[in-house]
Amino acid sequence: MNGPLLFSILVALAVMSCFFALSQFAGRRQDPVEERLQQYGFSGPGLDATAGADLLPAWRRPWPVVNRLLNGLGIGPKLALELARADLPLTAAEFALAVLGAGVLGFALGTVRLNIVVGLFVGAVFAALPLFYLRFRKRRRQRAFTEQLPDVLTLLVGGLRAGYGFSQSLQIVVERLPPPASTEFARVMRALELGLSVQQALEGMSERVGSDDLDLVVTAIKVQYELGGNLAQTLDTIGETVRERIRILREVRVMTAHQRFTAYVLAGVPVVLAVGLFILNPAYMSKLFAPGWVRLLPMAAAVLMVIGVLVMRKIVDIEV
């Protein structure tokens, strides 16, 4: 197979995968049965790589080969849970296809521009971009929910002390707070309406969010439901603990902001300069990828940069 034909095939696959991924991001699934089954407790977010896929139109169903591969490797359930925590309207198989399409596109661009070694490197970078976006969106959503948790507890305690039941207090939270708290507690209300117990509905929300503070609240509510007691007083005490923890976390983030920004700059500047030089003068940069031991230099530099970023992140990652 000659070079132009191989390039044409790779570009066609990359374009097809990218359009497929964009079609998934274009809008959320509208099937109400799927929403109830997947989001309100009857089928968890991490069952397999095709959770809810049978309820999609035929043209939107993931490929069976991808499903079997992900579930066989054990990646499907974990990836599906991460997508649920990031609130991305994709199954694990769909996201895997998006990563594959990005990697093929990067490989084709790097190979045509320089050589196959550069193509592999660029393909790996392109394939990592969706994963970084998934991690960023998940952490941002978890942080936003944690910051809303004191207000959630305040509304719950106020509703319980005013004489409302627990379900009515949850409805107050849904009406008074913005997403993501209102979205998650609305799912809890839907789960209760569909017949799940309070414990099951809250456990589903705790799994979707993945917050240690929320786990503490859910555990306290479950204990109170099983053993009895003053739930309002318990939630009030937990609320004070959560507020103090959030305050300390904010202080830590402020004190480590300079170090984190330094790590991002040190990691980003070499990459930006390399990409710029590749665009302006490919012949100059191609010498780093010439046959021989010189190819080890950019690889070693990339490995050392990754190690340096991980070390700096570990230094500023202070547990509270």
Summarize the structure.
By secondary structure, the chain is mainly α. It has helices spanning 3-25, 32-39, 64-73, 75-86, 92-113, 116-161, 166-176, 181-193, 198-209, 212-227, 231-255, 257-280, 282-286, 296-316.
Task: Describe the overall structure.
26% of the residues are buried. α1 (3-25) packs antiparallel against α5 and α9 packs antiparallel against α10 (212-227). This protein is mainly α and 320 residues long. The chain is built from 14 helices and no strands. Helices cover 78% and strands 0% of the residues. The longest helix is centred in the middle third of the chain and has 46 residues, at 116-161.
- Contiguous runs where pLDDT drops below 50 for at least 5 residues: 24-37, 39-60
Helix-strand category: mainly alpha
Amount of helix: over 70%
| Contiguous helical run count | 14
Radius of gyration: 24 Å
Strand content: under 5%
Shape: elongated
Report the strand count.
0
Give the topology string: H per helix, E per strand.
Answer: HHHHHHHHHHHHHH
What distance lies between the first and last C-alpha atoms, to the nearest angstrom?
Answer: 58 Å
In this structure, how is the largest beta sheet organized? none
Mean pLDDT: 79
Oligomer designation = single chain
Summarize the topology.
Elements (H helix, E strand, L loop, with lengths): L2 H23 L6 H8 L24 H10 L1 H12 L5 H22 L2 H46 L4 H11 L4 H13 L4 H12 L2 H16 L3 H25 L1 H24 L1 H5 L9 H21 L4
Helix pairs in contact: 1-5, 4-6, 5-6, 6-7, 6-11, 7-8, 8-9, 9-10, 10-11, 12-14
